[in-house]
């Protein structure tokens, strides 16, 4: 029998720093909710709005898989591995922090707001060599399809990370129905609604709602509105 | 009541950041070191409430550290700190201290 946990949009942590308007699906920074520490290896799901030209100065990370998906605008990224890049909406960036890496992230545009999802997963192996990658997403393939954008394998579709996780992104027409099969036994799925309204395993979800499901091998999905866009994170439920 | 937190990590730059973050809150006193020898010396010399294990500590060193701390001060909690500036720190410490 599958189990689930529902995180409605308005129950997320919220911090408005003026230049940064952040919503946290899980405990982060000064938002602490012992009931919202993680879902399996998913530790952070931040939905950040960043003013033009503003951002996060150089700061360190270690032993974390950090995935950034710009929803609108572009991010200017620089890190201690020598990478300097701009990641635009329609692309994905991944960083395995491993033994330690420092990076800065700024809104690359002066006069346009940046909206990004930043996702942190616990790795399945500590102290790996830090690694960076970014890729353009196949946006056309996401129409009425959960297109894989991340996996544990360099040979599979999308970027790869140091964890037995698969991310898929889809944009759906109203009324479209499908089933998503979980990639690895024991994994759960955390579904995050980027826009629109959908029904997943009988739960109706609106924009920015999150639903975690586990103890199952598949989930049912239906788009209720024409602008439905959903990120599925298929992740281990046990911390390594 | 102020709690004393000992951070052990191998990256000097991250250790500096951790020192700043831990000591930014009046309820915490942070001591941050890069070597296990420094850590054990501090544990022998003063009261510590919580040990955070940071980046770059290999499995053998971590095992030895945990064993040595447990022998010296069995009541001290030892937790893994996953770096990322201040993002996870508060939650990790609050969870560890119950």
From TrEMBL, chain A:
Family annotation (InterPro entries): Pirin (IPR012093), Pirin_N_dom (IPR003829), Quercetinase_C (IPR041602), RmlC-like_jellyroll (IPR014710), RmlC_Cupin_sf (IPR011051)
A matching Pfam family: Pirin
Superkingdom, natural source: Bacteria
CDD domains, sorted: cupin_Yhhw_N
Alphabetical keyword list: Iron, Metal-binding
Binding-site list for Fe cation: 59, 61, 103, 105
Cofactors required: Fe cation
GO MF annotations, alphabetized: metal ion binding
Domain Pirin N-terminal: 12-121
Metal-binding among keywords: yes
Keyword Cell membrane: no
UniProt remark on cofactor binding: Binds 1 Fe cation per subunit.
Family annotation (Gene3D superfamilies): Jelly Rolls (2.60.120.10)
Quercetin 2,3-dioxygenase C-terminal cupin domain segment(s): 149-235
Family: Belongs to the pirin family.
Protein name: Pirin family protein
UniProtKB/TrEMBL annotation, chain B:
Name this polypeptide is given: Response regulator receiver domain-containing protein
